Amino acid sequence: MTKRHPEFFFTDTLVAIQIEDTLFNVHKHHLNESEVFLDMFKMPKAGGNNPEEGSSPEHPIRIEGVSASDFAALLTVLYARQFSNNQLAPEASLIIPAFRLANMWNFSALRAYLLPLAEKNLGDVDKIAFAGEFGIKNWLAPAHIHLVQREEPLTTAEAIKLPIDSVLLISRMRERYQAGNSKQDWIFQVGGYYCDHCSGFTTIKAYTCSPCAGCGTASTMALKCHSKSALAQMELPYTDSVLEREVKEWVERGCSFDS
Q1: Which of 80, 164, 187, 238 could serve as 182's disulfide partner, Cβ 3.0–4.6 Å?
Q2: What is the DSSP string of 169-208?
Q3: Domain named BTB: which ranges (predicted)?
């Protein structure tokens, strides 16, 4: 007595799809994961003797506005999920195009599956491109910070993938970060205590372990500021915390520089 293999006996309908100059023959149940395709398949069939769209390679469903390579990436991930028992993560090069179409056609389960994989497997440059395309704002600051902090500058190939404002930010902040210092205008706080480095003045009076209002360093020697008019341009260390704050502020401004 014969039996049907639990994984590889297919009774599902195949749907023919043409994208650009490429034909695909796809199992319908995979496409049913998409709300867009599911609604399409529920539409009333045209009357008469005309063959149904998608019923054969000679009468495919034609889809415009997407690339054949992106669709192939989507199918690769869909089929890999079905046949891989250990659920291996797709290659990083597949994640972005597959997510793009999963997002466009509302493959909600696939989108939820791919998003954490994108966060884990994409490099910082691809994360910035991904976050910009799909509106994932909380990825932007960490990825930009990592690119500023790393030893290697952006390559030409990486810069091409990024918005011009991202390239400018990374370039400017890398220069400051590598130098280790940042010139800033500092208005002293009335009633605050400042160390010699932050005040730019010679210490004239001692206090017991008063923390500097500029950098927080505890010092027994400090100057007390009595007026808001005290203004000095000084060199402050361009630390990781300063970098993080400035990048986050830039992201909050919409990832663009003031004109």
Answers
A1: 238
A2: HHHHHHHHHHHTEEEEEEEPPTT-EE-HHHH-S---EEEE
A3: 11-87
